[in-house]
Amino acid sequence: ARLGKASYLAMFPDSDAQGAATLVDRIRQLVEATELVRGQNKLHATITCAVTPATADDTEESLLSRVASTLEEVRKGGRNRTVCREGENFTVFQPASSGPVPRSATL
In this structure, what DSSP letter does residue 41 have? Predict the structure, then answer.
């Protein structure tokens, strides 16, 4: 779901935080490895991702607030990465050594 101009929300109800972080970081790697081509112009994009689990006590407002504050903290430490927040602990996700193969998409 789109949350703002450049923010999106994905929910993974059958996954724990680390499983969701693994999937989200794979998406981040695919975005990073994809070259967008339009005519003579080439564009490389990156995304910054924050993962936090929902709790039984969460309201929609508390969950979205935690996601927003987590993303803000992630961006302070750099872009193009995935961070998983569990409670007050932030873990920079460490991707597997082999990333996706570079690809190209023509617009």
Answer: E
Q: Are strands 82-86 and 49-51 parallel, antiparallel or unpaired?
A: parallel
Q: Which residue type sits at 105?
A: A
CA angle 78, 86, 88 (to 5 degrees): 75
> How deeply is 68 buried, as exposed, middle or buried, from its count of CB atoms within 10 A (0-12, 13-18, 19+)?
middle
Q: What is the pTM of this model?
A: 0.79
pLDDT reported for residue 74: 86
Asked if residues 92 and 75 have their Cβ atoms less than 8 Å apart, the reply is no
Residue pLDDT, tens place only, 54-102: 999 999 999 989 988 888 888 888 889 999 999 888 888 765 555 666 6
Query: What are the φ and ψ backbone dihedral angles of 46, each rounded to 5 degrees?
Result: -135, 160
Is beta strand 34-38 parallel, antiparallel or unpaired with respect to 41-44?
Answer: antiparallel
Phi, psi of 36 (to 5 degrees): -95, 130
Of the candidates 34, 28, 26, 24, which has an alpha carbon nearest to the alpha carbon of residue 101? 34
